[in-house]
Amino acid sequence: MARRQYPFHLIEPRWQDRWLAGQTFRAFNPGESIPADHPFGLRHNLAGRTPSADELPPKFYILDMFPYPSGAGLHVGHPEGYTATDILARYRRAQGRHVLHPMGWDAFGLPAEQYAIKTGQHPRVTTTANIANFTRQIRSLGFSYDWSREVDTTDPGYFRWTQWIFLQLYEAWFNPATRRAEPVSTIPYPADCDTEARRRAYRDARRLAYVAEAPVNWCPALGTVLANEEVVDGKSEVGGFPVVRKPMRQWMLRITAYADRLLEDLGLIDWSDSLKEMQRNWIGRSEGAEVDFQLDGHAAKVRVFTTRPDTLFGATYMVLSPEHRLVAEITTPSQRAEVERYQQFAAGRSDLERTELAKDKTGVWTGAHAINPVNGARIPVWIADYVLASYGTGAIMAVPAHDERDLAFARTFHLPVVQVVQPPHKGTPWEGFCDEGTAVNSSGPGISLDGLPTADAKRQVTAWLEGKGLGQRTVNFKLRDWLFSRQRYWGEPFPIVWKTDPATGERHHEAIELGSLPLMPPELDDYKPTEDGQPPLARATAWLELPDGALRETNTMPQWAGSCWYYLRYLDARNGGAFASGDAERYWMTGRPGVGPGPEPASGVDLYVGGTEHAVLHLLYARFWHKVLFDLGHVSTPEPFHKLVNQGLILGEDGQKMSKSRGNVVNPDDVLREYGADAFRLYEMFMGPLSETKPWNTQGVEGVYRFLGRVWRLFVDEASEVEFEQACAADPAHATAHLERVRLAPSVGDVPATPAQLKALHACIRKVTDDLEHMRFNTAISAMMMFVNEALPWPTKPSGVLASFIQLLAPFSPHLAEDLWERLHRHVGRPAPSLSYAPWPTFDPALLVEDAYDMPVQVNGKLRDVLRVPNEATQADIEAAAMASAKARPFFEGKTIRKVVVVPRRTVNIVAN
RNA sequence: GCCGCCGUGGUGAAAUGGCAGACACAGGGGACUUAAAAUCCCCUUUCCGCGAGGAAGUGCGGGUUCGAGUCCCGCCGGCGGCACCA
Q1: Distance A765 CA to B36 C1' (A)
Q2: Vertex A170 angle, CA A164 and A176, to 5°
Q3: Can you give the distance from the CA of residue A683 to the C1' of nucleotide B46 in angstroms?
Q4: Distance CA A679, CA A561 (A)
């Protein structure tokens, strides 16, 4: 190990202990008393008082995506985002904002349960140990979290409210008239709902949390169903086990009701375009029309969805999904055997096979025909698995001339292809042309689209269909309802019981009493599913069966449940009577118009930082729950997260993704031991822009570590440090106490700053402040390096200049900053105020102005000279100076000067030829 | 295939349309040292030149502009997302 640059190993734990003991970073809810000696209170004249929301400074809620506390411990990727948010939290605190910066644990999840299945150890035990390890690691990095608000999704005091929110969804429906969630009591019933049982069935079919028999992704190896999003290439996202489709009774959440609002409200929030685009694609809104086709020789009609009703005249066949309910009815006897064989083939094909063989079209003719409503054409009806049962109506009209998939199918089975769209550019072949053009060959009895541009043709044919009662304008979404139940032990039990109607024998579900929450999971000896495939909770018969004969729901909620709302629990984490008090929720989520520096307090979380892996699922689910809570009056903003930033991935030193198997994983504990938390934090920010993917480089850590060593040497007296080191060597047990032997250098003192010193400082203040506002941490650090490189040789070092510099450094490397801050104040005989709450330095532009500036001289756009130009020089002066330049002259002499472009304070360009 | 992002020295990277390569890492040279480590100083885009200096240069090809790493069009390469969604 190289020589230690400065005693970070003594400094860092000391300040971490002090911050924890003094609750330095505690945030105060409206109505909470602020201790008389708390630095936040002292800064804002609120010490010993109990301020209301109006009396507290404007809020800043800065949130990290909380981790799953895995057995592997923290990874260098975690602290990247955490460091960025911590720097901003400390910066905003210094600016006078009331910062909410919490941390917690997303602790339900599969690994602890699988470990329990293997070893019989209760997941609680594993989880507690892992949380302890994560806590130790995160604390060793010196983040300014308010630990009094720590949450743990597996804590009954937490999941009580997860269950409570589920019941809010359960007891609500989406009223299409008002476009929002309302209590189920407002559901209007149709006249035929004349019995309580019918009303119940009607009501249960409209709840935001409902039960459906649905084909699900069953993973036999994990013994559970998975959401579509948790299945990747036909395998489970966790573990990579095979997944099969299987119909099962499942709890679903009606997120599709919110599809439009989830889409529209992206306009309210400050997320990257790429992230918004991912959400838009996932929601997958598409406008089109539903059209009814009469089946030839049957009473039934087939309804199709199309985004191109303008191509209706080009429909030469129809395709139903193999699972379509009309298939059995319309199949002719001669085709029956083949159709049934195909249905079996399609059902047995896994998603993986469907995807891999996507381009090879398969299908079978049913023997039936349908009538095209616009021209009366009799077209064959096929089934094929390229038509999905779960999208649109599960049936399509095929227009092979203008749809790639239909064309491939038509070519395979030699079906006719009829042009109905003329491409806008001559020479573009019409066959397979899928864009917009002009309608052709599109006339029938009572309607003609010929000559109309696609958009007009769509409008006209849709209006015609609507007039005839043959179809209507429709919007479809790719987004599906959220499959919300899992067959696991280590998750929130559903607060639901099943009852049997003694008269009819029919089963129905009911919510348990709100007052009986939390519903605890039962204790088990064995965490596997039961022999007959029931979830593990079914093993606990005493828990399962209630005295009145009712049975508990045995599914549990997915891991997303706890992470859907944790940002709300932080607002008031210990509240036993509500998920958060209304006052706390309003204060932290809406703030009030800002005073002082920094952005206006945002509607929702001011800044949320986390990985891209949650770009769709977590963020969509959380937005959905938040909107339901908003509709029901439990929260006051339509969106949970105002500004969202994705941190980039950190790769191994070899440029590959870090993984155990590659052996390129960097353990933060090792880095901390050798270089300390301050250097670690600084390096993670110095590597490059936060959002970029970048490789780890241990030598890069040494670079910033050396910088911190230079900062240390900027302040301390070398001789005293030698004494300190000798004392430590002689008496290592009291190393911390020996720190007192370190004195600051005699060159540091209360002396007036020179103009050059002030200029160096204020340039640094300006750059660091501006960069922090834009989250450009790497360039802020380089500005501080430049300051230190310039300040090291100063013969005298004014304490005021050094103090301001420490403040700039503090958000990045807070331990060293605190230590030097304290020493500096002691050195000049003044008491040290709390660094964490010291007002952020402001720069004085007057100190940065010079009386002249460097002016590049270009000839024909090429740099030829740099002139020193006085500020008051006119354009003519500058031009004259440039023309007189000895270095530039040879490049235009003898040529005709065409033009001289003078851009004051930028450049002068002489154009000559 | 579609959508999005990104291509700058040996490496990580800087650069409101105005001096490309700040700040670091690595490398080379030097000071200090009995020696090493640590520290400090100098050099370090490429090519030509002893030098002063010159030429080229931000994935490739065009364009706009007095001036393009930056803006526009077309390619090539990488990363991420979606993927039979009618």
Answers
A1: 40
A2: 130
A3: 31
A4: 37
Q: Where are the alpha helices (DSSP H) in A74-191?
A: 77-94, 110-119, 123-139, 156-170
| ipTM for the predicted complex | 0.95
What are the pLDDT digits (tens) for A546-603?
A: 999 999 999 999 999 999 999 999 999 999 999 999 999 999 999 766 556 677 778 8
Within 8 A by CB and 6+ apart from A262, the residues are: A255, A279, A283, A479, A620, A623, A624, A627
| Phi and psi torsions of A756, nearest 5° | -65, -40
List residues bridging with A657 in a β-sheet.
Answer: A651
- Cα A89 → chain centroid: 19
Nearest protein residue, CA measured to C1' of B53: A887
Q: pLDDT (tens digit, 9 = 90+) per residue, A343-363?
A: 988 877 765 566 555 568 899
**Residue A383 CA to B10 C1' — how many Å?**
60
Q: Measuring from the CA of residue A861 to each C1', which nucleotide is nearest?
A: B67
Q: Which positions of strand B lie within 7 Å of protein CB atoms?
A: 3-5, 11-16, 18-20, 22-26, 37-41, 54-56, 66-68, 79-86
Nucleotide nearest A385, CA–C1', reads B84
Summarised one tens digit per residue, pLDDT across range A21-57 is 999 999 999 999 999 999 999 999 999 999 999 999 9
Contact between A297 and A470 (Cβ < 8 Å): no
pLDDT of A111 higher than 50: yes
**Treating both helix axes as pointing N-terminal to C-terminal, what angle do A814-827 and A698-715 enclose, rounded to 10 degrees?**
10
Write the pLDDT tens digit of every residue in A131-149.
999 999 999 999 999 999 9
The region, left, alpha or beta by phi > 0 then psi within -120 to 50, assigned to residue A335 is: alpha
- A720: pLDDT confidence band, cut at 50, 70 and 90? very high
pLDDT of residue A653: 86
Give the largest CA-CA distance in chain A: 110
At A655, which amino acid appears? G
Reduced to 3 states (helix: H, G, I; strand: E, B; else coil), residue A855 is: strand
d(CA A897, CA A879) in angstroms, rounded, equals 12
Q: How far is CA A883 from CA A327, A356, A804, A876, in A?
A: 87, 69, 44, 10
Residue A1 has pLDDT above 50, yes or no: no
Question: A763 CA, B9 C1': separation in Å?
Answer: 28
Q: Give per-residue burial for A712-737: e unless 16+ CB within 10 Å, then b.
A: bbbbbbeeebeebbebbeeeeeebee
State which amino acid sits at residue A386.
Y
Q: Residue A432 has what pLDDT?
A: 87
Predicted confidence (pLDDT) per residue in A842-893, tens digit: 999 999 888 888 889 999 888 998 888 898 888 888 989 898 888 888 888 8
pTM of the model: 0.94
Element (H, E) at A818: helix A814-827
Provide, in whole angstroms, the distance separating residue A3's CA from nucleotide B34's C1'.
Answer: 21
Q: Torsion over CA of A26, A29, A31 and A32, rounded to 10 degrees?
A: -20
Instruction: Please state whether A207 falls in left (phi above 0), alpha (psi between -120 and 50) or beta.
Output: beta
* pLDDT tens by residue, A94-108: 999 999 999 999 999
